[in-house]
Amino acid sequence: MARGKYHKPDILQRLNAHLSSINKPFSIGQIYKSLRLRDANERAKVNAAFDALVKDGRVARTHDGLYRTRMKGAEITGVLDMTSSGFAFLESEHSEVDIFIPPHALNHALHGDTVKVFMRQTARRPEGEVMEILQRARTKFVGVLRMVKNMGYVTPDSRHMHIDITIPTDQIGDAQDGQKVLVSIIDWPDNAKQPFGKIVDILGKPGENNAEMHAILAEYGLPYKFNPEVEKAAEEINDDITAEIPHRRDFRSATTLTIDPKDAKDFDDALSVRKLPNGHYEVGVHIADVTHYVTPDSVIDKEAVSRATSVYLVDRTVPMLPERLSNGLCSLRPKEEKLTFSAVFEMDENANVISRWLGKTVIMSDHRFSYEEVQDIIDNGKGKYKEEILTLHSLAQSLRKERFVNGSVGFERAEARFDIDKNGKPVGVYFREDTPSHQLIEEFMLLANRSVAEYVGKPTAQANKPAEKNKPKTFVYRVHENPNEMKLQNLSHVAQQLGYKVNFGKGKTISRELNKLLSEVHGGKAQNLLEVLALRCMAKAVYSTKNVGHYGLAFDYYTHFTSPIRRYPDMMVHRLLELYLANGKSANVDDYDALCKHASEMEKLAADAERASIKYKMAEYMQDKVGNEYAGVISGVTERGIYVEINENKIEGMVMLRTLKSDYFYFDEENYRVVGRRTGKTYTLGDAVNIRVERVNMEKKQLDYTMIEEENKAEEEEAVPAKKERRSRKKQ
């Protein structure tokens, strides 16, 4: 057979083939060398080809003057999860695994940004490069200003922000070196390694309580003050309700009580109770009628939409509404006539609901109780309004029992709270427990929320009516999807390894098994581990116009109606309920979809800010306790270290694995433990341990502990007699 004539590939074919095989940044000089290009004409062809490839997007120029090829791979969009080390992972619904983004391939993208990424499969894992930033998650950051010559630099507090922000002299304003500031990114040139920013607010001196609390709010993009325009609008609201009272059902003569935390200032719910002639009880759940005062699209309403929720930090409440509304006009204070939106129930002695009424009312609270005061009445059967309190308690316990029979899931984890002095410094720790007094309020709020959702969402008999009239009305539901099946399987596996029999089926069987397991482990060594795993199985409750029920409560219909002073979704529900009680047409679903999504996002930010304030106060509380030893329990394990929660105050810190001296320990992810390679010793979630407080990092809100290992203890115990003996000999 005649051998065909060999045609040497031309320079462009060789270039394309070579670029398709490169997985790391390169220079033009490296291409010349790899292709052995010495001829000026060939180099000119390569340069022209490169210009075309860059223009076409198949080759990208990096910030350090190198190039990166996009000749082989796929485009994918998602959200960046940045690490403190400077690299990131792309989380995308289009990929089953997260995509690794090395630092040089971020191309100015930051944590939380929505980006388009060019992805390729490397030998180790999928790897990507940011091609385009589709949406910035944020442009404002909190940090400490440092002055170097005539230039300022802000080092952000966030562990996700891995670079400093340069502040030109004309953008520093009145800020001083060492102050904590809020800075906004104003420019980031392609060839600059750091962004340029402008100081937009001076928060104060690091370590000062107000500065640190404002910094936490600013870090999560949450407001810490109202604009003068909003405050002015609140002051101008007419507070005369005389003309409104005749149009409402009057409950001023019914015994009405508020029950709230001892330090509460806004009372948005009250309960009335009276015995009916037929022996049944009439219980009214009365909620502040915020929407009577706050009209749609007003200045105050727009601000409430933006905030979506009040934010509760350790030492303060940042309200959704100005104080004149939240603590004044709308707050159901004793001995004041107040406008309310109510759910009124006729109930028998077993808390069976005989009938229900929903509508606008006027009330006058007779007394304001704290939870502690109500609990004392429940425990001792004595006190003011004891008959009403004990009746409500009995009905609430019946409602609670029925709820758990129907499949509601109960998590009862004690929450640490702080006693704060006048300077905001934590001076003590106490625990919020789920007492019957809390349950009293909880059960009636749940009943009202469920009843409102059922009234709007539950299908009713519509005989001989056109099909379009049977369509569900637009409404705001509080929804909670079913637990994650894979995580349930993992929980079952771990529980069975620890000797607990679990048989998850579907629907109510799952909730019954969860409650049974949580009850069995209560007070035992495995309690913390299995409670944490059970919580991880649960979905996050959100707001939605699409009702899928509330799994955790075992309700087919559920909403938020009872806290309009502090949650905007409750205000939406009030407006929709008023509309539908008057037989109004269904509201625009697209408008409410967008509001639900925003409210859910803001709720998460507020919760994150609350946790950050708790972590800061925990670190602050432990500042003067470095060197102290405590008994604790392992609350988490990672490849970096072991999280330990101190028993007496629930304050969590980390024991780094490298500080464990008795062995080399590695992370066994499948079994939630770390294991010593030589000794086989294990540290598992839920284990009781002893720790020493090693250091406190206030900037990072972190606590470092060291483990007091048994081997070390034994060595110390052996050493003590020897030391005493040596001292004795010296004296002799």
Q: Biggest sheet, open or closed, and with what strands and sense?
A: 7 strands, mixed
Query: How far apart lie the N and C ends?
Result: 107 Å
Q: Stretches where pLDDT falls below 50 for ≥5 residues? A: 1-8, 713-720, 726-732
Backbone structural class:
alpha+beta
Cross-sheet strand order for the largest sheet: 13-20-19-16-15-14-21
**Fraction of residues in H or I helices:** 25-40%
Arithmetic mean pLDDT? 87
Number of DSSP helical runs: 17
Strand residue percentage: 25-35%
- C-alpha Rg (nearest Å): 31 Å
Number of strands: 33
Shape: globular
Report on this structure.
The protein is of the alpha+beta class and 732 residues long. Among the domains are: 11-68; 73-135, Nucleic acid-binding proteins (OB fold (Dihydrolipoamide Acetyltransferase, E2P), Beta Barrel), CATH 2.40.50.140; 140-206, OB fold (Dihydrolipoamide Acetyltransferase, E2P) (Beta Barrel), CATH 2.40.50; 237-289 and 330-394, no CATH class; 483-538, no CATH class; 626-717, Nucleic acid-binding proteins (OB fold (Dihydrolipoamide Acetyltransferase, E2P)). The protein is 32% helix and 27% strand. It has 17 helices and 33 strands. The strands form 9 sheets. A 7-stranded mixed beta sheet has the order 13-20-19-16-15-14-21. Helix 10 crosses helix 11, helix 12 runs antiparallel to helix 14 and helix 13 (508-521) runs antiparallel to helix 14 (527-537). Mean pLDDT is 87; it is low at 1-8, 713-720 and 726-732.
Key traits:
alpha+beta, OB fold (Dihydrolipoamide Acetyltransferase, E2P), 5-stranded antiparallel beta sheet, about 30% helix, globular, disordered N terminus, disordered C terminus
